[in-house]
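Protocol step 4 of 5: obtain the predicted structure for the target chain.
Materials: sequence only (see below). No template structures provided, no constraints applied. The aim of this step is simply to have a reference model before the mutagenesis design in step 5. Sequence pasted as it appears in the construct record:
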Amino acid sequence: MQAADSGDDDPLDSDIAFHVAVLRASRNRFYTQLTGFTSTALRFSIRMTNRYKGVRLGSVAEHRKVADAISAGKPAEAGEAMRRLIQEALDIISRREAPAATRRFSAVSNR
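Step 4 output (structure tokens):
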């Protein structure tokens, strides 16, 4: 992600690679089996949230908090930092998609 931040790598691929590396580092067989699904979901959500935020790159500083906590052997801190990243994305998508979903529902229910 640092290389992408300086223009030397693809921002989307590096962001996804970061999250997949965290899944694999967990050594949780269930999470590891979800890497394909997770990559696909992240490809969609990162594109959407970055577009909504008006940015091209993910927040290296916020991802660094996750990586530093993992490196320091602080799983609770790493988990909290990751939850903040995920919650931010969910909040952004919810704020942008809720009005559109309401309009679609109204249109269908008025038929």
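Step 4 remarks: Residues 18 and 69 are 14 Å apart (CA to CA). The mean pLDDT is 85.
Proceed to step 5.
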